[in-house]
């Protein structure tokens, strides 16, 4: 502390804003979007209904829902010139890097010309983002497979459209499995918002300079990519696979996670706010059993995950630090059972989180909050004279 400035690394004890969107209680493990519990929404709502709730503040009635879904359906195609940018990426470019680039490029195709309060045009940008994001996401997968991309089909719902763009091939008919579509719908709802997490805070900070929506969301995608945040769902599966390759014993990895000299962390464990079970992890764990059973998938890493969780929840190191499985611990097991490749797991997180980012950006925009500009405490050199290069 110097003068009136207090340093709070990682903002562990700093609130950045008030918000009406998402409530979470870390001690009790509660999560609500606009007052509705995540348990109810995951069971009874569909993803676009939850997106509407987050963005506009209320669950949509039938007319509002049909209008919202209809607008999104009519904007799922992407400007063909975006393909030229996309085709420039190497085939093994990580999809998160491609997504943040292409969403930023959208600001070139759909330039912001709205004044501060032209809600109608902002709404059109929101619809375009919600509609085109999944389409672009599937290009990454198709390219990695050497397959032609698929165009959206207006007769399919949001998750079914995503699945057909991902997995349909020109040489055969593709039928969306309702079990897969329902499981994906639930996963997207569970990822839709989470108050002021790292990527959402990034979206808000960029938006606070009055940068446009696409640039703000592009920054959020980049922040989510990190393995300590959304990238953890990919890191969890890679960790579980490593344990499986290593004979499946979890004790060695628990020891590594507890060893301060070892950079290894138990990925998918721990949370800044939840000091109890992450309510989303509880739902996803239950859903993993149901989806794998329904699809007849037997994934050996699911047993390893359960064994790891069991061992950690009985280990003093994790108990004392209140480290529980978080949203990323079991989600990858379901994504994999749905046929989604590991390097697309964090993109799935981003598809889910998109309405939350949009809702938070809109709330910030409407609040007229001052530009985000934190202070620092300087600890560098005191004033010194310039030295010519020959004297250095
Ligand atoms: C998400 O914020 C959100 O809401 C995020 C998210 C969302 O929906 O947006 O919920 C999504 O990002 C979930 C988190 C995904 N990340 C991981 O699973 C990566 C592994 N977990 C961690 O790195 C960590 O737990 C964080 C990043 C999630 C939280 O980090 P914090 O709050 O900064 O906690 P910390 O690193 O200070 O850890 C506190 C203690 C430390 O030990 P001590 O120094 O006190 O001895 O717990 C230890 C840490 O070493 N610890 C772990 C651990 N997580 C914390 N030790 C081993 N394995 C872990 N996973």
TrEMBL record:
Q: Read off the NCBIfam families from this record.
A: cit_synth_I, PRK05614.1
Instruction: Please spell out the taxonomic lineage of the organism that makes this protein.
Output: Bacteria, Pseudomonadati, Bacteroidota, Cytophagia, Cytophagales
Name of this protein:
Citrate synthase
To which protein family does this belong?
A: Belongs to the citrate synthase family.
A single Gene Ontology molecular function, please?
Answer: citrate synthase activity
Q: Which InterPro entries match?
A: Citrate_synth-like_lrg_a-sub, Citrate_synth-like_sm_a-sub, Citrate_synthase, Citrate_synthase_AS, Citrate_synthase_bac-typ, Citrate_synthase_sf, Citrate_synthase_typ-I
Per the record, what are the reactions this protein catalyses? oxaloacetate + acetyl-CoA + H2O = citrate + CoA + H(+)
Q: Which UniProt keywords apply?
A: Acyltransferase, Transferase, Tricarboxylic acid cycle
GO CC annotations on file:
cytoplasm
UniProt cross-references to CDD domains, sorted A to Z: EcCS_like
One of the GO BP terms on file: tricarboxylic acid cycle
Q: Which residues form a coiled coil?
A: none
Q: Provide the active-site residues from the annotation.
A: 271, 328
Source organism: Jiulongibacter sediminis
Q: Which PROSITE patterns match?
A: CITRATE_SYNTHASE (PS00480)
What are the TM regions of this chain, as residue ranges? none
Q: Which SUPFAM superfamilies match?
A: Citrate synthase
């Amino acid at each position: 502390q110097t003068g009136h400035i207090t340093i709070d690394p990682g903002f562990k004890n700093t609130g950045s804003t008030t918000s009406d969107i998402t409530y979470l209680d870390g001690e009790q493990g509660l999560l609500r979007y606009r007052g509705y519990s995540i348990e109810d929404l995951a069971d009874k709502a569909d993803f676009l209904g939850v997106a509407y709730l987050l963005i506009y503040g209320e669950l949509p009635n039938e007319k509002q829902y049909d209008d919202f879904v209809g607008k999104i359906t009519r904007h799922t195609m992407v400007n063909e010139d975006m393909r030229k940018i996309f085709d420039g990426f190497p085939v093994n470019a990580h999809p998160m890097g491609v997504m943040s680039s292409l969403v930023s490029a959208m600001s070139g195709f759909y330039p912001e010309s709205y004044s501060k309060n032209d809600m109608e045009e902002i709404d059109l940008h929101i619809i375009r983002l919600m509609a085109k994001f999944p389409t672009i996401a599937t290009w990454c997968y198709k390219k990695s497979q050497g397959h032609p991309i698929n165009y959206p089909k207006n007769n399919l719902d949001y998750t079914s459209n995503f699945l057909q763009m991902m997995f349909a091939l020109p040489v055969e008919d593709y039928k969306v499995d309702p079990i897969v579509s329902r499981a994906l719908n639930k996963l997207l709802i569970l990822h839709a918002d989470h108050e002021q997490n790292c990527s959402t805070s990034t979206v808000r900070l960029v938006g606070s300079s009055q940068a446009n929506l696409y640039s703000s969301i592009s920054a959020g995608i980049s922040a989510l990519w990190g393995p300590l945040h959304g990238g953890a769902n990919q890191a969890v599966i890679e960790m579980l696979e490593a344990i499986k390759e290593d004979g499946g014993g979890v004790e060695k990895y628990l020891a590594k996670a507890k060893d301060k000299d070892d950079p290894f962390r138990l990925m998918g464990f721990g949370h800044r706010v939840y000091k109890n079970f992450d309510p989303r992890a509880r739902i996803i764990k239950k859903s993993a059993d149901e989806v794998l059973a329904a699809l007849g998938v037997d994934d050996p890493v699911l047993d390893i995950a359960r064994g790891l969780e069991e061992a950690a929840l009985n280990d003093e190191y994790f108990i004392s630090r209140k480290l529980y499985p978080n949203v990323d611990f079991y989600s990858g097991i379901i994504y994999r059972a749905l046929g989604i490749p590991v390097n697309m797991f964090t993109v799935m997180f981003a598809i889910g989180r998109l309405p939350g980012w949009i809702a938070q950006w809109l709330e910030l925009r409407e609040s007229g909050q001052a530009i985000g500009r934190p202070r620092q405490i300087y600890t560098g050199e005191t004033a010194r004279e310039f030295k010519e290069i020959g004297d250095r």
